[in-house]
Amino acid sequence: MPAIQNIKVAVDAVVFGYTSKEGLSVLLIKRDVKPFRDEWALPGGLVGDDESLEDAIQRELKEETGIGINYLEQLYSFGQPGRDPRNRVISITYYGLVKPDAFELQANTDANDVAWYNIKKVPQLAFDHQQIIVVARERLKNKILYQPVGFELLEEKFPFSELEKLYMAVLDRPIDRRNFKKKVLKFGFLEETTEKQLLDGAGRPGNLFRFNEQKYFQLKKEGISFEI
Amino acid sequence: MPAIQNIKVAVDAVVFGYTSKEGLSVLLIKRDVKPFRDEWALPGGLVGDDESLEDAIQRELKEETGIGINYLEQLYSFGQPGRDPRNRVISITYYGLVKPDAFELQANTDANDVAWYNIKKVPQLAFDHQQIIVVARERLKNKILYQPVGFELLEEKFPFSELEKLYMAVLDRPIDRRNFKKKVLKFGFLEETTEKQLLDGAGRPGNLFRFNEQKYFQLKKEGISFEI
DNA sequence: CCAAAAGTGTTTAATATACACCCATGG
DNA sequence: CCATGGGTGTATATTAAACACTTTTGG
C-alpha cells in the first residue's frame, strides 16, 4: 500500500437518446483541451473534493452539453494505468437516457462542439471511450430484458411502433410485431389514448400510447422477464 | 471543476464462500488501524499509483486474509463524501467467490483477525461496508439467474444436493428438488460421476457431480435463463 | 425399525413462437 | 390505385409448476 497516492478521479457518461429518424444515438463532445484536443469524447471530467459522483456527472453534463438528463445509473469504473496519457485517472462511468425534447445541445466548458452520433456511426474517440460505449450498450441491451425501458427515451405520447423500433434498435435485431405488442401490453405499464399519430408520409396512423408512470416504476423495481 | 483534487482511491471486496455447514458466508477482517480500529470491515485498501484495480484488490486480499480467489468481478463504486471520516475516499468494490478448500485464513497487514461470517450474521461493520454487502448479495442473487454459478463456490466433486442448497442459500427461498435437477441437468454443464458421497450421518448417499468447465464457461458467456 | 437424505415422473397450466391478411392514410 | 405503415388472432410447441412415494444408508 502506497504511503501517498497520486490518482485523479473522473466521471464520464454515455448518454443515449432515441428518435425514429436517427435511431439509437450517443452524446459526444469535441474536446477543447489537451490531451486529445479536437477529438470526440464522452462528456465528463474530474470530481470535486466535496461533490458526490452523481452531482459531478450531472454538473459536467450541464457544463459541456447543456443537457438535462432523465435517467442516470452507474455503469463501471475504468482504472487501467495508462488509460490517460498524462496522469493516472480512474473514471467512474455512468450511462444515461434522455427524451428527444431534451436534444437541444450547447457546447460550453472544455468542449467546442457537442453532437449526437448514431450508435453504429460513432467516430474514433479519445482515451478508452470507445470501450466504455461498448460496455454501456451491452448494459442497455441486458437492462431492457429485465426492466421496462422507454419512458426515459420516448416523448410523452408515442405510437406503439415507436417503442417497437426502439427495442429493435437497442437489441439490434428484428422483433415480431404481434408478439411484442401482446407481451408489452400484458405488463400493463402502457395506456392507450384515443389520439392518433401525426404522419409525415403515407401509412395508417396509429393510436398514441403513454406510460403509466406508477406501474412503470413499480415494474422497474420488481423487475420483469422480457424474452422478446 | 477543481484546480487540484484531493481524493483517495481504494478497493474493497465482498468475498463469498459456501459450505453446507456454514451456509453462504462473507469474508471479513478486524481492522488493526484507525479509523474503526478493532471493528470488522471488508478486506481492501488504497490502490497503488501504477497498479491496476484488479491487482490492487488481489494484493489486498492476499495481504489481509491470505486467500486465493477463484472469481472476482467489479461490483460498484461508492464515493459519497463523508463515507470515510478522515478524507474523501472513493471505493471501487469487487465481489468474489472462493471454494471451501481455500478457506484457511491468516491475518496480516492492517488486520489483526480474519473470519468468515454467515451472510445472515454479519456483525456491525466499519464505513459503509454493510451497505456494500447488501449490494453484493443482491448482485449475486441476480447473477445466479442468468449465469451458471457454483463452480467457483463448490469443491471439485459434490453431491447434487450441495448445489441445490447453495442456490437456496443465495436465493434465500426453498426450491423444488425435482424441477431444479431437471432444469440444471438440461443445461449440460454438469457431469455425473459414479462416486458416492461420503456421509457424516444417516441418509442415502448421492452420486457426486462435477462441472464440465468448457460448457460451464461457454454458458457463462452466452448467459442462461434460469427461472427457478 | 426408525430417521435422514437422495432418487425419480407425470399431469396441468402458462408462455413463447410462428405466421398473413386487412385497414387507413397520403400522394 | 398504389405504396406505406398500422392493426389484429390462432394454432402449436415449449417450458414452468405442482406434487409424493421409494430407496439407501447410519444408528
UniProtKB/TrEMBL annotation, chains A, B:
Gene3D superfamilies xref list: Nucleoside Triphosphate Pyrophosphohydrolase (3.90.79.10), Winged helix-like DNA-binding domain superfamily/Winged helix DNA-binding domain (1.10.10.10)
Does the entry feature the keyword Protein biosynthesis, yes or no?
A: no
Report which superkingdom the organism of origin falls in: Bacteria
Q: Which positions fall inside the Nudix hydrolase domain? A: 6-140
Stored CDD domains: NUDIX_NadM_like (cd18873)
| Pfam families tied to this protein | NUDIX, WHD_NrtR
Q: Kindly state which keywords UniProt assigns to this record, in alphabetical order.
A: Hydrolase
The answer, when asked if Flavoprotein is one of the entry's keywords, is no
Among PANTHER family, the record links this protein to: ADP-RIBOSE PYROPHOSPHATASE (PTHR43736), SLR1690 PROTEIN (PTHR43736:SF4)
- Family per record: Belongs to the Nudix hydrolase family.
Name of protein? NUDIX domain-containing protein
